[in-house]
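Handout, section B. The chain below has 178 residues.
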Amino acid sequence: MKGAVLYATKYGSTAEYAKWIGEATGLPVMNVRKEFVDADRYDFLILATPVIYYKLLITNWVLRNLPKLDGKPIIMVTVSGAPAGPKLDAWVGDSLPSDFVANAAHVALRGRQIPGELTWYDRAMLIIAAWKNPDPVASEEELKGFNYMDKNSIAPVVALANRYKSRASTAAQTETVT
């Protein structure tokens, strides 16, 4: 099967993960916010996106391309400060149609947030969020930043992508033998 890594990024963590995934799988890597991508050209997609203000940055692209994505294997990679769990699942569910989410494999990766690299608006919003956050660890991360980037964490994404890629070679071998 022919696949691609498509991503949206704001501060670069997701772009770095997308690049690592592309290198590990041999799949092309494209930024959907900067270049046109025809989803019909691919049998499966890896969609990598940061979570910004509890929403997925890639949402608009997915919604515009929903008919082309229907029935296609999708690996949804979210990048945020939040670990995998109900809170992150709710943000994904609030961003995308439920049937799309139900049919996609979701892999949550932890990203990076460096306060000095943020826009003044994003920094101000994080300060407000930190004041309101009842979780002391998350509150401190919102104020001081964090760096959870880990190249090894892409292993589940690579394994799924390689499984999808091998479907084509298995099918081709079956056709050759018969």
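Note. Strands lie at 3-7, 29-31, 44-52, 55-56, 74-80, 104-110, 112-113, 146-147. Compare this with the example in section A.
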